[in-house]
UniProtKB/TrEMBL annotation, chain A:
InterPro entries: ABC_transp_permease, BCAA_transport_permease
Membrane topology: Multi-pass membrane protein
Principal subcellular localisation of the protein: membrane
UniProt similarity note: Belongs to the binding-protein-dependent transport system permease family. LivHM subfamily.
Protein's name according to its UniProt entry: Branched-chain amino acid transport system permease protein
Entry's localization field: Cell membrane
Lineage: Bacteria, Pseudomonadati, Pseudomonadota, Alphaproteobacteria, Hyphomicrobiales
Cell membrane is among the record's keywords: yes
TrEMBL record, chain B:
Entry-linked InterPro entries: AAA+_ATPase, ABC_transporter-like_ATP-bd, ABC_transporter-like_CS, BCAA_Transport_ATP-bd_LivF, P-loop_NTPase
PROSITE patterns given in the database record: ABC_TRANSPORTER_1 (PS00211), ABC_TRANSPORTER_2 (PS50893)
Lineage, opening ranks: Bacteria, Pseudomonadati, Pseudomonadota, Alphaproteobacteria, Hyphomicrobiales
Family assignment from sequence similarity: Belongs to the ABC transporter superfamily.
Keywords for this protein: Amino-acid transport, ATP-binding, Nucleotide-binding, Transport
ABC transporter domain residues: 5-238
TM region(s), chain numbering: none
This protein's name: Branched-chain amino acid transport system ATP-binding protein
Domain of life according to the entry: Bacteria
Organism: Sinorhizobium kostiense
Example of a GO MF term: ATP binding
Length: 288, 240
């Protein structure tokens, strides 16, 4: 039991961080970023290259993952999404653009890194063993780092000036503009921040599960699941959705094992019922 | 004396439909000027043009002697023009405090911001009581006080108010009218007030313009307009 909870928390922290980035981009720009999983994978490959290949410290690799993705996110906002939003009022335009970006990133990564599963040396070895819980130290470390980052993100959004500006922008674009917020600049910062979160989680997890160029799509799907559970555009919803999905996965893997690989089948079924009752998720409302 | 704001022969279109067809309006330093007129007359369009939310097609807008048409809204705020938009538009999931801090977004003088905060809270004690409450959960009148306070946090020289009495309980309308007078007097802010409640607007303003379908139909001192037969007939219909 404790083992299941520990696994769920560890997974949930990663997931929440992924969902936070996705929901931030959605809240600020009304863009469903289908390429979120691909950004995660790219972050993984950056860490793989810098830590695994070039043998630089893991922290350096993580920072590079974050910075690379922040730059890519900023460029995507400035040159792709901003132009499309300006020219088209239809929401599906940005969705199609996001989907195209996802395919493009998939193709680029396949070309650069091949289709093999890539792993890196363990960041720390050893296993924590108590009577009821067995957890490798590296998972504990990664989980703790993820939780610290969630906390830092929330503090930033809640108490910093740019954080406040982004919340304002998400709640009322015109009113934010009237307060003097440079809408384009903060949309770009928000997109960069969301992409950065995806990249950092990708970098963190490469040390545990490795990375391969095909997992972008599935990660995006998981990210959307979390946002659907918690409610789109809400910080609390993303975090709740992340931990709920992590917990469900952990419980599913522990209890449904003998029936085969049906955990996600069960999760999808549950989610469909849940969404038909609460289409806005647990806390559906714009940014809180 | 030169006008603080000079809105000259402005035309404004939404796609192919005009909203303003050659409108001229002036606000002098220290004045409260009212814009009255029926639904769709173009009152809000004037404010949107001043703040840069909407481009004008022709004419010009001058503020402190400089042309400001074509300048982006976030720059206009920095020049000292703050707007309280139609339908209030508080940031609903932010606290009263954070809403007010957003009002001071363009400023970086910590001590000055603190001073403005105290001034606003003294002027609207209700906001002090609700300091940590989510703005979206407050009453219409409280939200109206909040958005006026939020606009003051930028320390503007010109305050644009779009229907501050709309959706506010009748008892509070008087309070808000009094606040506007006090703000104009104490904070040295000139006010351009858009109102459907023409009687209230004419009572608290120095001068007024009456709009009909994108044109200025009448203008003059507010006391003149209050007793003008045509105004009585067109805009003052019921008793207040
Ligand atoms: N976004 C828009 N798109 C198209 N037409 C618009 C838009 N906003 C306003 N209009 C039109 O422009 C005209 C003037 O509108 P405006 O909002 O300035 O009027 P108003 O005097 O403020 O009216 P109200 O008292 O109802 O607020 C109206 O005919 C209105 O229908
Ligand atoms: Mg209006």
């Amino acid at each position: 039991m404790e083992q299941v909870i520990a696994n769920g928390l560890y997974l949930g922290a990663q997931y929440a961080l992924i969902a936070l980035g996705l929901t931030l981009i959605f809240a600020l720009m009304n863009v469903l970023n289908f390429a979120h999983g691909q950004m995660y994978v790219l972050g993984g490959f950056v860490t793989y290259t810098i830590y695994g290949q070039l043998k630089l410290p893991f922290v350096v690799a993580l920072i590079c993952s974050g910075v690379t993705l922040a730059i890519i996110g900023a460029l995507m906002e400035k040159f792709l999404f901003r132009t499309v939003i300006r020219r088209s009022k239809r929401e599906e335009s940005t969705m199609l653009l996001a989907a195209a970006t996802a395919f493009f990133l998939d193709a680029v990564m396949l070309l650069l890194f091949g289709e093999k599963q890539r792993g890196v040396p363990k960041i720390i070895s050893g296993v924590f063993i108590s009577e009821r819980v067995i957890l490798p130290y590296d998972r504990i470390l990664v989980g703790v780092v993820a939780i610290l980052m969630i906390a830092a993100f929330m503090v930033f959004m809640q108490y910093s000036r740019p954080g406040r500006a982004m919340r304002a922008l998400a709640q009322d674009r015109v009113a934010a503009q009237l307060m003097g917020v440079k809408v384009e600049r903060y949309s770009m910062i928000g997109f960069a921040l969301g992409a950065m979160l995806a990249g950092v989680v990708g970098g963190l997890l490469v040390s545990i599960t490795g990375v391969n160029s095909g997992i972008g799509g599935p990660i995006s799907i998981k990210a959307f699941l979390m946002v659907m559970i918690g409610g789109a555009g809400v910080v609390g919803g993303a975090i709740a959705g992340g931990f709920i999905l992590g917990m469900m996965e952990s419980v599913g893997l522990a209890t449904l094992r003998e029936y085969g690989d049906i955990t996600y089948l069960a999760i999808f079924a549950l989610l469909m019922i849940f969404l038909s009752i609460r289409p806005h998720g647990l806390m559906g409302k714009p940014w809180g | 004396m030169d006008a603080l704001l000079k809105f000259e022969d402005v035309e404004l279109y939404y796609d192919h439909v005009y909203a303003l067809k050659g409108v001229s309006v002036e606000v002098h330093e220290g004045e409260t000027v009212a814009l009255i007129g029926a639904n769709g007359a173009g009152k809000s369009s004037i404010l949107r043009a001043i703040t840069g939310l909407r481009r004008i097609r022709s004419g010009q807008i001058q503020y402190q002697g400089k042309r400001i048409d074509g300048i982006a809204p976030d720059e206009i705020v920095r020049m000292g023009i703050s707007m309280v938009p139609e339908a209030r538009r508080v940031f609903p999931y932010m606290s009263v405090r954070d809403n007010l801090l957003m009002g001071a977004f363009t400023r970086s003088d910590k001590a000055g911001i603190q001073q403005s905060m105290e001034m606003v809270l003294a002027r609207f004690p209700r906001l002090k009581e609700r300091y940590s409450q989510q703005a979206g959960t407050m009453s219409g009148g409280e939200q109206q006080m909040l958005v006026i306070g939020r606009a003051l946090m930028a320390r503007p020289r010109l305050l644009l108010l779009d229907e501050p009495s709309l959706g506010v309980a009748p008892k509070l309308v008087q309070d808000i009218a009094r606040s506007i007078v006090a703000i104009n007097r104490d904070e040295k802010v000139s006010v351009l007030l858009v109102e459907q409640n023409s009687r209230m607007a004419l009572r608290i303003s120095n001068r007024a313009y009456a709009l009909t379908t994108g044109k200025v139909a009448l203008s003059g001192t507010s006391s003149e307009l209050l007793t003008d037969e045509r105004v009585r007939h067109l805009y003052l219909g019921g008793e207040f």
